[in-house]
Amino acid sequence: MPASGDATSVMSEDRFADLVGMLSADPVGGAELTDLLREEHPVYAGRGTATVVQMRGWILLALARIGLSDQALIFVLEELDTGIDAYLIAAAARALRCYPKPNEAFAPFVARALDRIRFHDEPVSFERYGEYATSSTGTSAVSELLAALAWLGPNALAVQPQLESWRAEHGLSRKLRLDLDRTLQAIREPDRAIPSCCGGLPAAGSVSIRGATESREPSSINFVLMQDQDGKSLRFLEFFGGKPAIVVFFYTRCDNPMKCSLTVTKLARIQALLGARGLAGRIRTAAITYDPEFDRAERLRVYGQDRAVRTDEDHRMLRAVEGNDALRSYFELGVNFGEALVNRHRIELFILDPTGRIAVCFERLQWDEEQIVARAVETLNGFEPR
């Protein structure tokens, strides 16, 4: 069975597990496994969130068996950066250890995941697809993360103080103290390779910014009817034409605080930066929901207010009343749906030029507000008369 296409959307979980096993045994199967990690892939359509977690974890474990490529690395870093499920984080940590070379840029991702998951760690099983651990004697997210830091060795020196602070806490289990000690010893190991002087992410793995496809014309989706937080209706180019815009996607029922809630909170910070620099009326902002049927105007307004989002003629919370599928296609959104709810999505932020065309996209990894404003100003300056 092919790894992509409509057939995968009705594939049973047993067939899916067989497919992943087949691809992991193929010397060139890594590219198809990586393709299966795309959130919008039809294999996830109609699935529940828990099923999607199991499926994606199984793919990461398959990539760990065959070696992690630059193309797959970004998915692993994304899970470490924003994941909240112990199974997926554990699978990502194991996959990271199968990257060809340790890199000091990986250490903060692992440390953030460790800080986030250590208070609700769970035993996990990697033996068979869908299998749940029945005891605490196996591996866990924390164990896999510590193993990833041990693999990094001196490349994880930057997070050593965080680990030592944790080691000094009361109430740690004997096993955890032993794991921490082994990790710290590996980080301090003098005979291992020292951190590189230029520990940036590998080129393919660091691409959280991508240029727009030139052929996508904003006029092609101007029929999309949108509604803002106050119930006002407008077409796509009524808002996204004439000025650059910073656009994020979210939905109010998201249960991952590292994604939608944080994204909208950070958008409010962007608005504050724009205001402080006298740009609030020259660069627009918008937060568009993935879930327009549920996220009606009042719900959008309250969600934004709770996160200090400014709303006025140039800054809005939006939902697509008509043409939501076209909107998703235009932005090439990384999102999929179960029967009635988003079951997986990535972080994504877009900067549009004054014609409504996508100039820049930040996706998967957390972005910095100052960097976004700087890129939006570049877009603004590129269209203003000199």
How would you characterize the overall build of this protein?
The protein folds into two domains: 6-188; 209-383, Glutaredoxin (3-Layer(aba) Sandwich), CATH 3.40.30. It is α+β, with helices and mostly antiparallel strands. It has helices spanning 13-24, 30-36, 49-66, 70-82, 86-96, 107-117, 141-152, 160-167, 174-188, 236-240, 257-276, 297-306, 324-331, 369-383; strands spanning 123-124, 139-140, 209-210, 225-228, 233-235, 245-250, 284-289, 315-322, 335-337, 342-345, 348-352, 358-363. It is globular, with a radius of gyration of 22 Å.
Question: Layout of SSEs?
Answer:
Layout: H1 13-24, H2 30-36, H3 49-66, H4 70-82, H5 86-96, H6 107-117, E1 123-124, E2 139-140, H7 141-152, H8 160-167, H9 174-188, E3 209-210, E4 225-228, E5 233-235, H10 236-240, E6 245-250, H11 257-276, E7 284-289, H12 297-306, E8 315-322, H13 324-331, E9 335-337, E10 342-345, E11 348-352, E12 358-363, H14 369-383
Question: Which keywords apply here?
Answer:
386 residues; alpha+beta; Glutaredoxin; eight-stranded mixed beta sheet
Helix fraction by DSSP (H/I, runs of at least 4): 40-55%
Residue fraction in strands: 5-15%
Structural class, from secondary structure content? alpha+beta
Question: Averaging pLDDT over every residue, what do you get?
Answer: 90
Give the total of domains: 2
**Low-pLDDT sequence parts:** 1-5, 204-215
Q: Report strand order across the widest sheet.
A: 3-12-11-6-7-8-4-5
Q: What's the order of the H and E elements?
A: HHHHHHEEHHHEEEHEHEHEHEEEEH
Main pleated-sheet profile: 8 strands, mixed
The Rg value, from CA coordinates, equals 22 Å
- Euclidean distance between termini CA atoms: 56 Å
Shape: globular
Number of helices: 14
Q: Report the strand count.
A: 12
